[in-house]
Amino acid sequence: MPAIASSGPPARRAQADDERTCAALYGSNVSGSPAPRVFRCVYDAIGLPRHQYGLVGCPSLESEPNAWSDALKQPDTLGTCITMPLKLPAYDRVDELTEEALVTGCINTTFFRPSDPSDPLSPPLVVGTNTDTPACLSVLLSSFLSLPSPFPPSAPRAFSPAAKAAALAVGGGGATRAAVHALQQLGCAPIYVVNRDEGETEAMRAHFAKWRWDVRALRSVGDAERELEGLEKDGGRVVCGVGAIPCAEPTTDGERMVYDVAEAVFARRYERRAGEAEDEGTLRLPERPVFVDMAYKPPMTRLRVKAEEHGWKSLCGTEVVLENCFAQCHLWTAIEVPADVRQKARELLEQEQ
């Protein structure tokens, strides 16, 4: 297992004439990603016109060399992004891991740091992290707070334990793990997980059990109804959810089960009771539950349609892509993307949908 990162990325701000200017997204089916357009918008706005972001097909890391491992050795590589199916296998192929990567057990982003923190010219180490978690968290917080990121320091970041706010996660891969981490940071418990692969689900549940998180698998509609009845009797309710599966017609029993269970959760009666007590400095329970689908092809996915049919508010996965880009830009350049540039990038993607 890689070492735990002793420090973050270098504090030095990127310059237009830096040698390291290239980043890319690696994985399967990456051609439809809007990330290159977002980064072009951001880089131009923050004075880095030579910086580039590309898309590279890389279906596996099993054989060496591969496109991703080769990129990590190039002197002009600024960092890399990793999507399915590479988020779990890449975890053991970096020099160090951040706390976010350690907690989720997978990575979606790499950056470089000097092997000797006191010497910026020392050989670089490859550090793996996970920006899906803060990205997913930001999208949910934006909905709950009715504010775009970045949020003011005074804004609440989590529900009170007294709110008994539960959540749903759909899937079992690296993106789902990051979503569970985001939901846990929101103060949601329990977090219900539905996935077609029981082994994958159990591996994820066992991983999070190390942190003593309340993650529960739903394996049937009956499971969901029993769990939710118990939750509701105790005064709790599911306030949000995140989907992290491709949008495709279900063809197997396991795939159909996922949609059936998700719909059973969406269909539960949600009520925010008048005068409900809230702790100061915590999130207010939403007027209706919120569902974020990390998939965005098509923008209105099957899960989003089902959620909205039952009164939930749903958000497109391009929102998560945007927040990932903002976080990755900061990691690679030490430049916090300004609020006006974020809005310009949001409008860019809205025009394309």
From TrEMBL:
<dbReference type="InterPro" id="IPR022893">
    <property type="entry name" value="Shikimate_DH_fam"/>
</dbReference>
<feature type="domain" description="Shikimate dehydrogenase substrate binding N-terminal">
    <location>
        <begin position="25"/>
        <end position="109"/>
    </location>
</feature>
<dbReference type="InterPro" id="IPR036291">
    <property type="entry name" value="NAD(P)-bd_dom_sf"/>
</dbReference>
<dbReference type="GO" id="GO:0009423">
    <property type="term" value="P:chorismate biosynthetic process"/>
</dbReference>
<dbReference type="InterPro" id="IPR046346">
    <property type="entry name" value="Aminoacid_DH-like_N_sf"/>
</dbReference>
<dbReference type="GO" id="GO:0019632">
    <property type="term" value="P:shikimate metabolic process"/>
</dbReference>
<dbReference type="GO" id="GO:0004764">
    <property type="term" value="F:shikimate 3-dehydrogenase (NADP+) activity"/>
</dbReference>
<dbReference type="Pfam" id="PF08501">
    <property type="entry name" value="Shikimate_dh_N"/>
</dbReference>
<dbReference type="InterPro" id="IPR013708">
    <property type="entry name" value="Shikimate_DH-bd_N"/>
</dbReference>
<protein>
    <recommendedName>
        <fullName>Shikimate dehydrogenase substrate binding N-terminal domain-containing protein</fullName>
    </recommendedName>
</protein>
